[in-house]
Amino acid sequence: MGWQPDVTEEPLTGWGLTAPSTASVLRGRTVDAVLNAVREAGPRGVLARGLGRAYGDAAQNAGGLVVDMTALDRIHSVDADTGIVIVDAGVSLDALMRAVLPFGLWVPVLPGTRQVTVGGAIAADIHGKNHHVAGSFGNHVLSLDLVTASGSIETLTPNDDLFWATVGGMGLTGIVLRATLQLEHTESAYFVVDTDRARDLDDLMARLTADDDLYTYSVAWFDSVTTGRGMGRAVITRGWQARRDDLPAKLRRDPLRFDAPQLLTAPPVFPSGLVNKLTVRAFNEAWFRKAPARRRGEVQNITKFFHPLDVVGRWNRVYGPRGFLQYQFVVPFGAEGAFRRCVEAIARSGQVSFLNVLKRFGDGNPAPLSFPMPGWTLAVDIPVSRGLAALCTELDEIVLEAGGRLYLAKESRTSPEMLARMYPRLDEWRKVRQAADPSGVFASDLSRRLML
Amino acid sequence: VIDAVGNPQSILVLGGTSEIGLAVAARFAADAPPGRALRVVLAARPSPRLDSAVGRLRDLGCEVTAVPFDALAPHTHRETVDKAFAGGDLDVVVVAFGVLGDQEKAWTDTDAALELAGVNYTAAVSVGVLVGARLAEQGHGSLVALSSVAGERARRSNFVYGSTKAGMDAFYSGLTEALRPRGVHVAVVRPGFVHTRMTEGLKPAPLSVTPAAVADVVVDAVRRRRELVWAPAPLRWVMTVLRHLPRAVFRRLPV
What we know:
A: alpha+beta; five-stranded antiparallel sheet; B: alpha/beta; seven-stranded parallel sheet; 9 helices
């Protein structure tokens, strides 16, 4: 298909900039183009790709075809009364949020960046700071149109097994073309935020356990570098959507205004090793110090509360050319000891993690490969360097033993056996996928690496 | 595929009894995460030495297959490469075969000269073409060519060997550029004196290394996607100086 102007051979990586591979990338401008791509898929298969925010190799298909879905980005309808929207899979959550806020509507699940597509959000069954209240993205999908391996379009609802195999299915059941989403109503685009500092890991977990349920949104940033007495010291930010009456007079005039500046884009020239022990220690210290020990009722905008990293475009370049990985796991409630051992292992390893996020998850959903389950989740960003593989392997063992698991949207290095043991319902998912795609038309580097 | 922390799932060693090639496989095997055995394909002429190499890698937990490979029979190379890829994608391919030969014989005896050229250059080019095509098709992978500092400047003492390595070095340096847009990484590795069967009984040159040390350099080159490396690393600067010495001076050096 090299003669088609819409197809180019491109090296692709995930957001972590590791493990590059080359695929033919088709810009999917029309539904027909996507259907043809699936019907004419070669021996190495086809895969949809959105904005490439998965950290590992989930949106790569070496030697095969990758359909860039970002050109299919129409919002077909918005119903302000019911909160139901119909959108193309390539619509970003950023665009969707901007479009629906004037109607007083809110995207119910937002991850750490708005730069993800609806298709990607479904495929990874993403979660946000409100998981303990709202669940993950799939919980808010009323129906979706899926291009299946036969090259036809199937409309699926939560009554279908294939729907739940697609939610969290990492794009391996087909290509989502369009989805109907149930949004929430909101009076403002602002948040009322309470900030607390926890002096160590025990204090942190005790505070989160005590009153997390009072808040719609809850997350803790914690220090992964400090060992000993202050290990796990953290800044907890929790809040809820501001009502119009919560806002100061100045903001009340335009409560649905979307405040989301992007100040700069990181250039591709950062050397390896800029994120090192010294800089990370300094950053961790400063972040902890600058937070108030306790503050109540502060009004924050979307970027400040939700997406501080979106202020800098391409911030992933800061880690240098060797890239980085994000290790995110969840262990069930009751496995606090295992959680503590993981934090200790990270702090002790000398690996430097820049961004450490801890959160309590609420109930999971019916999707066999969905990541969230009731328990503690931790995400750490670590630049690739010597010893990182061994640390991750050590963490894998602790997480597995505790009955926990890794997040496929972040996964980039574990073994097929480890993953299968972490997801006991993998075989159930495989059966549904096998029935929908018997010859394996949909494939990715992730699926080959983990033998999904 | 090679994962985010630089561990491959599969490796092909062309010259499956090469000490350096086997050391590279062993290094990657040692780093493989538990539950993910490294798949190793050893391509070599069937021999007891090959059998023992297979056994040793199996003891390290690798899943090993052996594929017959005769460097001096280029018409059989396609079949060798097809068989090597029959088990699925190969993440790392090491072109590790080569002979040193008797250097005095090599420049005075046609058969000896042609054998050196046939193994070190012709066969290396032949498998480079075939493997390069397979890696480009799969869209990922690292192709490692074991060249030699001997190819950087011809010396009286081993210039036939040096000329074959100069040729294969140039070929793989060009292949690096040709395959880069296809997502394939090519690394040219230039070891100095390595303590192996091939150099047994020879007087070690300065900065000599073990096969394991060369393997460390290879593994690092694969992980960082480096395209030209020396083993040990300081040889790069030594060779830069040696390359530029006037002939009258170079001739008198005890190297």
